[in-house]
Here is the input.
Amino acid sequence: MKSFLKYWLPVLIWLCVIFVGSTDVLSAEQTSRFVEPFLRWLKPDISSETLAQIHFFARKLGHIFEYALLAIFLWRALRSGANLRVKISILVIVVWFVCAIFAATDEFHQSFIPSRTASPNDVVIDIFGVVIGLTICMGFALRINRKSEI
Here is the structure.
């Protein structure tokens, strides 16, 4: 049970966070209520066009961050919480595949939310986040392997 709480609970919680974020709670309309006043406070003469662009890119960065973190949590759970003895390349493929499937189903879920739109481009952005997360994990794995060889 301790192993589940330590390794798998963060994965499940993060999946729920992503799912809830795909509802109206984090729609563009909702996030603009916080982002735009903050940006206007920082730069009162900011144009509406610039506001829209910054808001758009901030939302896309959110996709990258949430899926990079999902990949890291899943990597950690599979590598340490499941005691799998597989090559890193297999682990990378499994994590990438699971995260890509979740990204696609998450966009499908958004197609049922009136204030959201499903976009294949967002799935690509999510997968880019997964690749970043996997790159971080592989970097740490290689670093740990080099230290154990010394």
